[in-house]
Specification:
Layout: H1 4-32, H2 40-77, H3 79-85, H4 88-105, E1 113-115, E2 128-130, H5 132-135, H6 137-178, H7 183-223, H8 230-258, H9 260-297
Antiparallel strand pairs: 1-2
Helix pairs in contact: 1-2, 1-4, 1-8, 2-3, 2-4, 2-6, 6-7, 7-8, 8-9
Protein name: G-protein coupled receptors family 1 profile domain-containing protein
Organism: Batillaria attramentaria
GO molecular function: G protein-coupled receptor activity
Length: 299
């Protein structure tokens, strides 16, 4: 889609793919092969690339969702400003600002882990250890106030309030127009309204539930209040991390199944690919035939 919304959705798709890939490299690999934590090479990768980049993709995914929502909000509620702000140039600028801001705010994660070179003469045991910063109060304050509050809760409330405003605006606009339309036109408008409302509600509430649960579980995991079972909190936090991955995995499904426009775009792409396949096969056959004839004649 050549539009500001399409740009944000492309950026969101890239971030979601990054979340899935880096979650596998930083979390799933350690579950499938626990001995990998003894590898110095993996410790270097995890400390200086895997762990910080994974969180960068997570935060970018969350804020690109905010970008999509803000873009829709301007198109629906601020129609007079849509031509100025809802274009590809502005979208590229917004994506660049989100990416740059998320990278700068995510910098402390690059100092969270380090390599343990003092593991004894035989070099056995975990090569990956937490830094003094990660063990201290500074990391806890950063994770709670910056990561949980600013990077998660602020976009959480932003997406909720903006989508609520969009739905309210659509309902009011259609109620005003119903009296001026025929029954057939009003029914068509109502179906379109229901589709948009359904898309917004499904995407928003899946985002709110999964990200909200992750934020709450992470706060309990870091603070570990008195009277709570540590094992239960650890299990809840593990499930909450999986919720972030699920949120990144289902965005494509939610948009394509809940929105007609996205389904049409997908079908259009698939039809183009289907039309190209016979042509590519025919071209390949002609090329093979030509090569065979050339070899036979010796030219």
């Amino acid at each position: 889609m050549k539009s500001s919304t399409g740009r944000y959705l492309t950026a969101l798709a890239v971030a979601d793919c990054g979340v899935l890939l880096w979650f596998f490299l930083t979390d799933s690999v350690k579950m499938f092969a626990p001995e990998v934590v003894n590898s110095v090479a993996y410790a270097v990768f995890f400390s200086y690339l895997g762990y910080p980049v994974f969180f960068l993709f997570v935060v970018c995914s969350i804020w690109f969702m905010v970008g999509v929502t803000v873009d829709r909000f301007i198109m629906v509620c601020l129609i007079t400003k849509a031509k100025v702000y809802c274009n590809e140039k502005r979208a590229n600028l917004g994506i660049f600002l989100i990416l740059g801001s998320c990278f700068l705010i995510n910098l402390p994660h690059f100092w969270s882990f380090t390599i343990d070179f003092d593991r004894g003469e035989n070099g056995t045991g975990p090569a990956l250890v937490k830094t003094a910063y990660q063990e201290g109060e500074g990391a806890m304050r950063y994770e709670f106030w910056v990561h949980c509050i600013f990077l998660v809760l602020v976009p959480w409330f932003s997406v909720f309030s903006l989508n609520f405003t969009i739905i309210t605006k659509i309902n009011k606009t259609n109620n005003k127009m119903n009296s001026k339309k025929t029954a057939q036109s009003a029914d068509k408008c109502r179906r379109s309204e229901n589709q948009i409302t359904r898309l917004l509600m499904v995407v928003t509430f899946s985002f709110l539930i999964l990200i909200g649960f992750q934020c709450i579980a992470q706060c309990f995991f870091m603070l570990l209040p008195d009277g709570f079972d540590k094992e239960i909190i650890d299990e809840a936090y593990a499930i909450a991390k999986l919720g972030v991955v699920i949120n990144s995995s289902i965005n494509f499904i939610l948009y394509c199944l809940s929105g007609r426009r996205f389904r049409n775009e997908l079908l259009s792409v698939l039809r183009c690919r289907a039309r190209d396949l016979p042509y590519m096969s025919h071209s390949s056959g002609d090329h093979s035939s030509g090569t065979s004839n050339t070899g036979t004649t010796g030219i």
